[in-house]
Amino acid sequence: MKVIAATIKNLEQLAPLFNAYRVFYKQTPNIDAASAFLKERFAKQDSTIFLCLDAADKGLGFTQLYPSFSSVSLQRVYILNDLFVTSEARKQGVGEALMERAKQFAIKEGSKGITLETDADNPAQKLYKKLGWKNDDGVNHYTWEV
């Protein structure tokens, strides 16, 4: 198993994973839209995607980070918006490898850290806690949608 920084050359491996991730979150499957979205991220260079591959270069999972800033600390911060591991690859260290690679990237970039949001019943929370992530009990998270 290896974790790489994905590029447009990895689109064929990544798009089915991204599509499955969206389906996991109850979105209608649409591989063309998933591919188009990822192509745009690569073209605009507005996210960083890490892809976990097996020995045969089959995609096992991915994580996507979006850059942001903390005005208070005057530092970059990354938003880990997406983390997905195929059902066949779960419980094999793929999620942990992706999270650790994201942490290494954030450190290398000199950022304040990484933040993420997840459903209250997402079982991946056990992994986050195991890796030293802390739940932000002292803040409220609000969303406004169009």
From TrEMBL:
InterPro entries: Acyl_CoA_acyltransferase, Bact_Acetyltransf, GNAT_dom. The keyword Acyltransferase applies. Signal peptide: none annotated. It is an enzyme of class 2 (transferase). GO terms for molecular function: acyltransferase activity, transferring groups other than amino-acyl groups. Pfam families: Acetyltransf_1. Keywords: Acyltransferase, Transferase. Its EC number is 2.3.1.-. This is GNAT family N-acetyltransferase.
